[in-house]
Amino acid sequence: MVKEECKALLDALSKVTACYRHMVLTIGGTSDSQNLREELKKARQKAQELAVANRNKLTAVLKDKTVSKEDKAEFERLWVIFSTCMEILEIDMRRALELGQEFPLNVPKKHLIQTGMSGGTSGVAARAMSVQNMKYEAEHNIDVVDLKDLENEINQVGEMMYEMEMKVNVPQWTVEAKQDPGDELKTTISVGASSIGMISVEENKSFCDISKVLAGIIFSAVLIIAVVLAVCVVKLS
User: Fold this and answer.
1) What angle do CA 21, 24, 30 make, to 5 degrees?
2) Where are the bilayer-spanning segments (predicted)?
3) What is the pLDDT of residues 202-231, one digit of tens each?
């Protein structure tokens, strides 16, 4: 039960972190707006909430002396994944801070990055927020006010990562992966992605089967022709 809860929390954190990164990359672009800055704030707050929940769950389990060796190895693997998500989140929060300082919305004469991309980011933000509803009230000039909050939150994330290392020491190089590189692409964890992935795998398999059949037919035909030619040569001689 605890293991499933930890996996669910980690899966939610991974999704929110990925959505946050996607939106950070649009800061300063043609789709940048007040709405984007608000969505960024909601996404990173959601990520931090999930991070605290992940930390509390995994820390308690890894400190439990009664956990079996197999379960402990699995929780250590989840801990490494969690630590990686936190590192990615911190990097993206720092990137958001730098881009927010370079491209403030309250300075209309500031030229934004022409990325060639346009459109809203509501769809991405909706996926991030679908994990759990949050209450949030927009503030005036959020791109200015929010930068101060973002700096404080970056420090908080850094402190949390330091405390994690002090409380639970799980070197990443001591944790073995349960899957070979690329195997996660064949799993059915994500409904949308997995359906496409499974279709492509099935198509590749069917294509390979057809190729094998054609190769066998061609090889048999060549072999028959060679035998016939050999017989004709023998008769002529």
Assistant:
1) 135
2) 213-234
3) 445 454 466 666 777 887 888 788 777 777
Distance from C-alpha of 126 to C-alpha of 39, rounded to nearest angstrom: 9
Instruction: Tell me how far apart the alpha carbons of residues 47 and 157 are, in angstroms, rounded to a whole number.
Output: 10
Token pair of 21 as six digits? 């990164």
| Interatomic CA distance for residues 50 and 9, integer angstroms | 7
**Structural domain tally of the chain?**
2
Residue 13 lies in a domain: yes
Residue type, 19: C
Q: What is the pLDDT of residues 123-158, one digit of tens each?
A: 555 555 555 444 444 444 556 778 899 999 999 999
Token reading at 106: 């309250």
DSSP per-residue string spanning 97-148: HHHHHHS-TT-TTSPPP--S--S--HHHHHHHHTTS-------TTHHHHHHH
Which structural domain, as residue segments, surrounds residue 77?
Answer: 1-106+141-177
Q: How far is it, in rounded angstroms, from Cα 19 to Cα 193?
A: 15
Q: What is the number of alpha carbons within 13 Å of residue 66 lying toward its C-beta?
A: 1
Of 94, 95, 20, which Cα lies nearest the Cα of 50?
20
Indicate whether 13 and 76 sit together in one domain: yes
pLDDT reading at 20 higher than 90: yes
| Structure-token pair, residue 137 | 């009230």
The answer to the question of residue 185 being in a domain is no
Sign of CA dihedral 208, 209, 210, 216: positive
